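Q: My labmate handed me this sequence with no annotations at all. I'd like to see what the chain might look like in three dimensions before we decide whether it's worth expressing. Could you predict it?
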Amino acid sequence: MLTRVRAYLGRRRATLTPVLNLMLFAVAIWVVNRVLAEYRYDEIVGALAAVPIGTVGLALLISAVAYLALVGYDYLAFRFAGHPLPLRSMLIPSFVAWAVSNTAPASVLTGGGLRYRLYAGLGLTPAEAAVVAAFNVLTYVVGLLALVGLVLLLHPATGMLAAGWLALPGRTVGVGLLLAVGGYLLATYLRRAPVRVLRWEFSLPSFRLALSQLGVSSLDWLLSSGALYVLLARLGVSYLDFLGAFLIAQMATQLLPLPGGIGVFEAVVLVLRPHGVAAPAVLAALLLYRVAYYLVPLLAAGVLIAVREVVDARRRGKPLEALLEGVTSLAPHALAFVTFLSGAVLLLTGAVPTDLRRLAWLGDLLPLAAIEVSHFLASVVGAVLLILAWGLERRARLAYRLAQGLFSVGIALALLRSANVLVALLLGVALLILHAAADEFPRAVSLLHEPLPAGWPLAIATVLGLTLWLGLFAYRHDTYSGQLWWRFALNGDAPRFLRASVGMGIVVLLFALGRLLGHRGAPAAPTEG
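A: Here is what I predict for the chain of 529 residues:
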C-alpha cells in the first residue's frame, strides 16, 4: 500500500507541488490580512512615503554588498569540488545564479542545475555541479545554525519571539546549535576519511575550508538581514530582537516551497514584530526590502543577460565568452520571468488607488473616457503578459512578437491611466531586454497546443488572487453595490478596479477555453499499420 502511495505521489508531484504552493500562499495572505485588519490602505502608503530616500539607498547598497558575499559560496564550493576558478571569472555567473535562485523555492537547493548551465562553458561536469550544490547547502546551514544559536544564547527571551514558551529553553537551544556547529568543525579537523551515512558516502572539507564556510555564511546572513534592518531601525527595533525574527522567517521560507518565500516571510516577520510597532511601518519596510534585495538584483541579472546578447562575436572561443554563452542559454527563462513580473506590476498597480495629484493632472489633460479605457486595457495587457511569459519560456516566436507589441502598448497605458513613470520605465527596460534576445525565440508553434506545466496556471492564479485581495483590501471601506460598477468619475478608483478585474478574468477564461477547444480539435496522431 505504501509503495502505491509513493508511486502515486511521484507521478503527481509536478501537480501537487504548485497546488501546495498556492495553498501556502493563501494561508500567508490570510495571516497578513488578519494582522492588517485594524489598518487602512492609506496608512501603508503613508508608512512607505515616510521612509527616507537615504535609508532606501543604504538598503540597496547593503544588498549589493550582500550579493558580492554570495560569490564566496561558489568560490569555496568550487575549491572543494576540485575545480577552483579565479574569483573574477565567477562574479557574473554567481551573481546571476543567486539573483534567480533567490526568487525560486528552496533557493539553495535549486541552485545546482542553474549553476551547471552557467559554468558548463568553463568545464564544470554534472558530478562537480552536484558537489557544488551540496556544499552550498552545507555552507548555508552552518552559518544559519551558528547565528541562530548565538542569538538565542545572548538573547533567549527576544521580544520578537512572541511565544513565551520559547524563551525558557532558548539559551539551551542556542548552546545545542552552537555545539552542533562546533562538532562539525571538530570533525573536519580530526577526520580525513569520508563519512558514510547509510548508502551514501561524504567527504569532509579541510578545517580551514570549514572555517571559511562559517565566515562566508555568517557574513551573508548579517548582510542580507542588514538590508532589512536599516529600514526598521528608525522604528526603535532592537537588533537582536530583529535578527531572531529574521532568521526564523528565513528558516520558514526554506522549509515551505514558495518562490522567494513570498508571503510567508512577510507573515512571520509581521506576527513576530515587537509590541507597540505598527504593522503598516513593518510592512512598508518588508515591501522595500523585497525591491532592494530581490527585485533589483533580478532585473540587473536580466540586463546582464541582455548585454551578453549584444557582445561582439569576435570574442568567441575565449574562456570568458564560453562562460557568457552559458548565461545566454538562460535568456528565455529570464525573459519569461521579466515578462511575468511586468504583467504582475501592471495588474497590482492597477488594483490600488491612483495618486490624487497625478490623477488631477491627467484629468486636466485627458477626457475621463481615455483614463477609464486606459485603466481597463492596462489590466487586460497585464493578464495577457502573464500568459505570454509561459510562451517565451517555450521559445515561441509568436509569444515574442506579441510581447514586444504589448510592452509598447503597456508603456503608453501606464502613462495614460495614472501617469506612472516608474511602471513605464520598468516596462521600457523589459522591452529593451526582450528586443536584445530576438534570436532566442525561433519556434513557430501554436500556444494552444504547447505543453502547459501545472506551475504556470497556478502562478497566474497566484498573481490574479493577490491582485483581487489587494484591491479588496484597498477599497474595503467602500460600500459595494450594483451601481458601483457603472460609476464613472475621476476619483472612482474602486469602480475601475472592479471593471479591470472582470477584464483580466475574461482574458484568462478565453485562454482556458482556447486551450480546451484547441486540444479537442487537434489532429489525431497517425497510427501504424
